[in-house]
## 1
Amino acid sequence: NGCTSSLSDTSTVSVIATTYDGTSWSNGNPDSSKLAIFTGNYTIAADLTACSLRVTNNAVVTVNSNYNVYLNGAITVDSGSSFTMNNNTNLLQSDASAVNTGNIIVKRNTSTIVRLDHTLWSSPVTGQNLFSFSPNTLVNRFYVYNTATNSYVTTGLSNTSLFTPAKGFAVRAPNNQSATTPAVWTGTFTGVPNNGTKTFTLATNAANGYNYNLVGNPYPS
């Protein structure tokens, strides 16, 4: 469960866990030595630390803004359950080899924008469709950055395009956003949270004297 200990050939390993059933924890509050299991709905309204975390039994778990979840190991979200991180929350995993399972929901707010404004986005999860991320943005207003031409282009994008870990995308505001009154828009990512080393190959254009690339944080933190 993401915790380490020294074992002999005759050691017996017991999983230390605590389960929230919708009312209370079965083995005290989670900490870095315990697997936290949610079988009932729960709102995380303070920083939470656990060895690893599992959401099951159709439980709905929500992390309130401005709080963090610290895990040594993986997060598992079973089918039918949900784990939602609101704006200004973080999921921080100390074990880069931990393999996450199941989708989480990550919400991130823009600054105040109007209809023709663009925001640069990078996905913290794997599997998020680019066009579905902002369905009310015109399909020709999603862009990648082309280093060779020093410009934003729509080349290669289609309704099957997914966010690429560590790659940045420019997305115009939804077409139903006010053209005159700035307002915050909340982007919602759904997918398996990224963890471990993510490699992004930078493009170069030394002949023109610049090597600009559009990259972004690939993690839900």
Note: The chain has a mean pLDDT of 94.
## 2
Amino acid sequence: TNNSLTLSVTVQGNKVKNSSLEGSASNSSEGMRSMSASAQGPEAWSGSSTRAGNATWSDGGSDGFKSAGLSGNGGNAGASGSPSWTSDPIAVTPGESLAFVVSVSSVNASSAANAGLVYLGAAGNVLQTVNLLTAPLTTAGFAKLEQAVTIPAGVTQVRVKLTGFAPTDLRTSGTVRFDEVGLFGN
């Protein structure tokens, strides 16, 4: 009515539950930030392209809008690193139980990509990086992946990290797309 639209966001445990990768649905210090409409790419995320692959932001998400992509370019990942996307830090509490959810698809990818968490201490130092979800090699649309996570002792923040392809295998035309990334309380 009257050209209006209502957007609903469900919040649990101070984390955004249903965050797509467009819009601006969450707070910068808590919850998953979503992609902005900027041509520069994702808001509160940083992409890392390498000689082996590219971090891209483009149409083609599970909801038909923007998604974070990683694509191989035929380079040597072992020598130059794999492409990735990394979120800004998200405040967490040791012992907290969370659900990590991501929609992912791959096209012509010859090796799987991963979605994981980087555990940070109180001083922002990296304590550990863990891969939690492995992207399926499929061309049949997006698959929703979910993993329960309990935050270890000493961890006060996490970063979500989306990494592309095995270090020894980047197919020239392979692409993995991540969308609907969320980290929320159980």
Note: The radius of gyration is 16 Å.
## 3
Amino acid sequence: MENWKYLHVMRGHNGNVFDVRWGPNDRFLASCSVDNKIIIWTAKNFPEMYKTLSGKTICKTGLRWHPSSNVQATQSDNRTLRIWRTSDWGEEMKIWKPFARHHNMTHYLRCDWSPDAQYVVSTHAVNQEGPVAVICNRADKFSVKNDFVGH
């Protein structure tokens, strides 16, 4: 039998939180919300906020840390996939073309890194035939040359 108790209530978002992820080495915890904010929490000093990314175009629904922790990928219901540098939390890349033609929007979008961390795969994209998940190649400036078809 296990007995669980909460340690901290992390207050900072003004809307539903859609995703929460531990960063590599457990130094940070990131949360994203419908309130157009991504909050990076310092794990060492919970519930201290380390950094907040906010703005009209930041409505995030899914996030994933790169295994080396030098970038983070976020997917949004505004039809974008963004790559953020963790060194200064600036935007490294905004990928929108594969998502521009998708007509159905959802609040549950998720992206993820490949095990070798060279690719990020993202849902809710469209190719000529219909809905796909795109594979973005980091070594080639996150170009999209492949996708998963079938859903």
Note: The chain has a mean pLDDT of 84.
